[in-house]
Amino acid sequence: MEHVIALDVGGTGMKAALVGPDGALLYETRRATGRERGADAVVAAVLDLAVELRAQGEARFGAPAAALGAAVPGIVDAERGIAVYSANLNWAHVPLRDLLSERLGGTPVALGHDVRTGGLAEGRIGAGRGADRFLFVALGTGIAGAIGIDGTIEPGAHGSAGEIGHVVVRPDGPACDCGQRGCLERLASAAAVSRAWAAACGEPDADAAGCAKAVAAGDPRASEVWQQAVDALADGLVGALTLLDPGTLIIGGGLAEAGDLLFAPLRAAVERRVTFQSVPEIVPAALGDTAGCQGAGLLAWDLLAARRQGAARPDPTADTIRAPGVAPHDRAAPDAPAVPRGSAAPAPHDPTEVTADGRTK
Ligand SMILES: [Zn+2]
């Protein structure tokens, strides 16, 4: 049976799977990343895990995997296959695509950014299934996003599109590691909520899950911490949806596990802020912590499909690069009934054009 290898390398754990053509996870395993042993040891562990999965596939299905997809954290140059930097894994400029391909005897390898790869899976086979334009936002230790267009993720000109966690929402807010102040992830990540709740309740070990419980129990201090995070998140998300106009907004990561405790006030906060923008469907992620691994499988299958199309698309990353202005017009016609032409024409700063229901005429 033809299959691919999917690897999701995280700060503490690695997930690996053999993935069938329909996206089914045929075999799954997990390992500790072992980052305390240093970057070289992490790279060696990734390569060993790939070799192990290749042997598993060969034993189970009679032939080795046809390709491998790998999702890694930090800054990733997917086009060149380089893990550029990860503070978590303490690695820099690791040519991981070539290293993996060499260890697997020339097997084609695709490398992707962890959140963008997870977003690819959520958009194509998870919560956004069927959505042609979506935004995936993961609320974890940090905040990152993935911009989905027609079943692919927009990488940006320099490979860093979707970094919504470093959009400034409180200019005088707390300092961020990136050098700015008041970045969204300093105010609305699971880590930020944990910090704010620990300070509010006076227990250093208090965390975001504890804050959610206290909110549900009616603790006013917790409710204030929670609402401040929701408001910051809504400010960041409204900026993103103003720019991108996604049809579906998928929220994942640890904080999204709070369910309606997060989604009900978040939808309300977004609706309070929009004027002319269309509010997308705001839904929780569906794939949980296997999104990165499933996305890595999709990267591998996409790479194979691109190669098999041969000369038509010689560059495996070409399907994520569009000629500016071409695709939106191609897609305008089917969307036209839902979004009347000219509906966004009045500038948002012109309040006279805003009707009572919050939309422009
Ligand atoms: Zn920042």
Which key phrases capture this entry?
38% helix; 361 residues; Nucleotidyltransferase, domain 5; single chain; 2 domains; 10 helices; binds zinc ion; five-stranded mixed beta sheet; disordered C terminus; alpha/beta
Task: Characterise the protein shown here.
The chain contains 10 helices and 13 strands. With 361 residues, the protein is α/β, with parallel strands linked by helices. It folds into 2 domains: 4-117 and 289-319, ATPase, nucleotide binding domain (Nucleotidyltransferase, domain 5), CATH 3.30.420.40; 130-286, ATPase, nucleotide binding domain (Nucleotidyltransferase, domain 5, 2-Layer Sandwich). Helix 1 crosses helix 2 (96-103) and helix 6 (208-216) crosses helix 7. The N and C termini lie far apart (56 Å). Zinc ion is lined by residues 166, 176, 178, 180, 183.
Ordered list of secondary-structure elements with their pairings:
Layout: E1 4-9, E2 13-19, E3 25-32, H1 39-61, E4 68-72, E5 75-77, E6 82-86, E7 91-94, H2 96-103, E8 109-113, H3 114-125, E9 133-139, E10 143-149, E11 152-153, H4 184-188, H5 190-201, H6 208-216, H7 220-244, E12 248-252, H8 260-273, E13 281-284, H9 291-308, H10 326-335
Parallel strand pairs: 1-4, 4-8, 9-12, 12-13
Antiparallel strand pairs: 1-2, 2-3, 5-6, 6-7, 9-10, 10-11
Helix pairs in contact: 1-2, 3-9, 5-6, 5-7, 6-7, 7-8
